[in-house]
Every structure is written in structure tokens, then in C-alpha cells.
Write a structure and sequence with these properties.
Number of strands: 12
Radius of gyration: 27 Å
Low-confidence stretches: 1-14, 407-435
Oligomer: single chain
Shape: elongated
Strand content: 15-25%
Structural class: alpha+beta
Strand order of the largest sheet: 1-8-7-2-3
Largest sheet: 5 strands, antiparallel
Order of helices and strands: EEEHHHHHEEHHEHEEHEEHEHEH
Mean pLDDT: 79
Helix content: 40-55%
Length: 435
């Protein structure tokens, strides 16, 4: 962002005209003081064009509301983990501990819901004001949000839960402990009774139908987690729109940087200098500057393209049973997530819906040792990236393919691949460790 600097001493102010613009270099003198010099003077027309270009490049890296969404969910996740741990060691006081924990978690849920709404509203406003409501950029984001709503039960639920909190108060949720028969451990869940949740609010028809098909005890926290990858997908769409808009400006700035004389300045700025003089002495020097960061320019030019909503989405593989090659039930839903898991011969990409992602991820951890959570829009990107890195990949669509995959398992370390596109934060799967 531009900044104004007044009364800043300069090594060459006496040689400057009253108005000047170009690339300013900050360097350190031998006595440790900072000196400002005009490294490359520019004509006003070119300076104006480059200043506008720099703003478009810088916008890609500005702090966004998406970071607030991530931070808010991290706090929610930490709060849930903390109270789950406390409750598991509370003994006879577990009921009172659960009640206090539920209130704290409800407060964090509302905070996260508010930040997610802020992100959506701000993104629409940013794209509308920058490109126009009829622009391809604005419609790309709208198409992405529509895809999330159409394909993700979790996203639809979260979208409605925001309104429910505001108009109906805190939802009927509680912390319950259930026994996981696969490993004999007690798992703490944030539960809402289905009938109570349906009566709690006037849900839209599609969300009411979603809730009606769920178990009697609905794991609300799992639904919240299921929407996280969708918000990361939407954040990546906004960032990619800004990246594409900044490509031509970044090339202009790269050419400018190549013209700057050599040396080792502390920093470069694109700016204007104004010198006020009285007689032969300059009274005051002021500058309007914007940091000219070569790393940002190169980063924009090197960022891979982020894919938009997938045209076709594979069906959910269903409810895989940990420790077996079978599934407990088929699933009629399309996938809204990809579970990526490395194995002896490459990486498997397993499509799953929000309701089964945790079970499939758990299966992948127990049978293959690792599970990462990705958005289905990254399927082609992952396949291409793996091929470029010399690794095989496969999209697993049936229990038969699961069985064939499991036969390839060897106790190998993870491949250590970093295939996530720049700007895309691949979330951790809850309780499963790093992806």
C-alpha cells in the first residue's frame, strides 16, 4: 500500500527537482543511516501505468477475510479438542463439564459462521467493485458458490445455520461420548438429535431433506468440518481471479526491475518525491511510495492456475469399514471431497461425500498410513502433478478397486510430495494429523 513519508533525509535531495517520480532505492550508509536515492527516473505516463500495475500485483498478497475464516475455525477446533479432552477425564462431573464445553463451542461456532459470511460478502463486493457484476470474474465466483451449495451437504447446512443462529438462538447440541467398535476407544462428538434439529428452525426444503436422511444422532461438528474444504476452494477462486488480473502487470514490473541499476539496496519503492525549498536550501522532502517487491512479482508469474468447479464429479465411494475392503453401505451422493493417500505404487484419490469423508479418511490411515483432504476440483491437477513428479495415481471408485489398492500396501514412508497449488491451504483432517 502507498505510504507518505515526510522530512526523510536523503543523500541526493539537493540534486532533485521539486517533483520527481520513479524507482527509489533505500540503502545503508557506512555509518548505519538510511539513504534514499532515485535509482531509475520515470516519465509521468509510465510511472502512472506502473503504479496501477503494482497495486494489482500487491492485491494478490493482501490479507483477506479467508485468513480470518481459517483462524476462526482453528480456534473452534482447538476449543472442541480441549473440552473433549477435559470431559474424557472428568469422571462423575462429566455432565457439568459437557454443559460448560457446549456453551464455549457454541460461541466459537457462531464466531466462525460470522467470519465465513464476512468472507463471502466481502469477496462478492471486491469482485463486483473491481470487475463488475456482469464480469466473467464475478460469475466465476458465483458459479463456485453454487457448486458448493449443490454438491456439499455440509456447505448447505452451514449456509443455513448462520441464519438459524441469528433468528432461533443456539441450536440443540451437546457433547456425547460413543464407543468406536473398530478400535474400542471412546470418541467424543458434538451431537444434535435429528428431530430436535428439524424443529429448531424453518430450514430450506433441501436442507430439511438433507437432515432427514442423516442418523438420529447428527454429528454437527463433522458437518462443520465438511464445509472447510469448500471455503478453501472458494478462497482459492478469489485468489486465482486476482492472480490472472495481475499477470500482465507483473510482466511490466519485471521489465522495470531489469532496468534498475545494480547494487544492494535495502529495499526498492515505486514512488514520487516532492521537495519544498526556501532559497537554495531545501526545507522539507516528502514521498509517496509503494514497496516494489521482486519476490511478489516472481510469485505471481510462477503461480499455477487454480481450477474452477469440476464439470463432472465422481460418486461417493460409500462407507468404507476400517480394517476391511468392504463398505457398510452405498451412497447416492456425488463426492464433495477427495481423500488422497500415498501407497506403494503411487497415490490413490478416493472420492467421498461430506458424510463419509471421516470414515474413508480413517480407513486410509489404518490401511495405507496417511490421508489428505482435497477438493474434487483438484483431481486433474493432482493427476498431472503426480505424473510430472514421476508417480502413478488412480481414482478409486469401488470396493474392488479398494481391495486391489490395499494389496499394494507396504510400510513405506509418505512420498513427501507438496502438490497443493500456491495459495491453496490443504486443511488437516480432524484427529488424523497432517495431510
Amino acid at each position: 500500500m502507498p505510504c507518505n513519508v515526510e522530512a526523510l533525509p536523503t543523500s541526493s535531495a539537493d540534486d532533485l527537482p521539486s517533483e520527481n517520480q520513479g524507482v527509489l532505492a533505500l540503502s545503508l550508509s557506512e555509518d548505519g543511516t538510511t539513504q534514499v536515492s532515485m535509482a531509475l527516473e520515470l516519465e509521468m505516463d509510465r510511472y502512472t501505468a506502473l503504479d496501477a500495475s503494482l497495486r494489482r500485483v500487491t492485491r494478490v498478497f493482501e490479507r483477506s477475510e479467508a485468513q480470518l475464516v481459517r483462524a476462526s475455525f482453528d480456534v473452534l477446533s482447538s476449543t472442541f479438542s480441549y473440552h473433549s479432552h477435559v470431559m474424557s477425564h472428568s469422571g462423575k462431573g462429566a455432565r457439568a463439564t459437557a454443559a460448560a464445553g457446549t456453551d464455549a463451542i457454541a460461541a466459537q461456532i457462531f464466531g466462525w459462521l460470522s467470519s465465513s459470511r464476512l468472507f463471502l460478502d466481502h469477496s462478492r463486493r471486491l469482485l463486483s467493485q473491481t470487475f463488475g457484476r456482469e464480469s466473467a470474474e464475478f460469475h466465476r465466483f458465483e458459479a463456485a458458490t453454487n457448486w458448493c451449495y449443490d454438491n456439499s451437504i455440509s456447505y448447505r447446512f452451514v449456509d443455513q445455520l448462520r441464519n438459524a443462529f441469528q433468528h432461533a438462538g443456539v441450536p440443540p447440541i451437546s457433547i456425547n461420548g460413543t464407543l468406536d467398535e473398530s478400535d474400542g476407544k471412546t470418541v467424543l462428538r458434538l451431537i444434535a438429535r435429528r428431530d430436535q434439529l428439524l424443529d429448531y428452525y424453518q430450514w430450506k426444503r433441501v436442507v430439511r431433506e438433507d437432515l432427514s436422511r442423516l442418523d438420529e444422532d447428527i454429528d454437527v461438528y463433522e458437518l462443520l468440518v465438511g464445509s472447510v474444504v469448500q471455503y478453501e476452494f472458494l478462497a482459492a477462486q478469489v485468489r486465482d481471479v486476482l492472480r490472472v488480473d495481475a499477470l500482465a502487470p507483473a510482466r511490466m514490473l519485471k521489465e522495470l526491475l531489469s532496468e534498475v541499476p545494480g547494487g544492494e539496496p535495502v529495499a526498492l519503492y515505486l514512488g514520487r518525491i516532492h521537495v519544498e525549498r526556501r532559497g537554495e536550501e531545501h526545507e522539507k522532502l516528502s514521498m509517496t511510495t509503494s514497496p516494489l517487491v521482486a519476490g511478489q512479482v516472481e510469485s505471481v508469474l510462477g503461480m499455477p492456475a487454480i481450477p474452477g468447479p469440476p464439470a463432472e464429479t465422481p460418486p461417493c465411494i460409500g462407507d468404507l469399514i476400517a480394517g476391511t475392503d468392504t463398505r457398510q453401505s452405498d451412497c447416492p451422493l456425488t463426492s464433495s471431497n477427495l481423500i488422497s493417500t500415498p501407497h506403494a505404487e503411487g497415490v490413490a484419490l478416493i472420492p467421498t461425500c461430506d458424510l463419509h469423508q471421516r470414515q474413508v479418511a480413517k480407513w486410509a490411515v489404518q490401511n495405507l498410513g496417511a490421508a489428505g483432504l482435497l477438493h474434487p476440483s483438484l483431481l486433474d491437477y493432482m493427476v498431472a502433478g503426480l505424473a510430472a513428479a514421476g508417480h502413478n495415481s488412480s481414482t478409486v471408485r469401488s470396493p474392488e478397486e479398494v481391495h486391489a489398492l490395499r494389496r499394494t500396501r507396504e510400510q513405506l514412508p509418505p512420498l513427501g510430495l507438496d502438490l497443493s497449488p500456491s495459495g491453496w491451504k490443504v486443511p488437516q483432517h480432524p484427529d488424523l494429523g497432517d495431510s
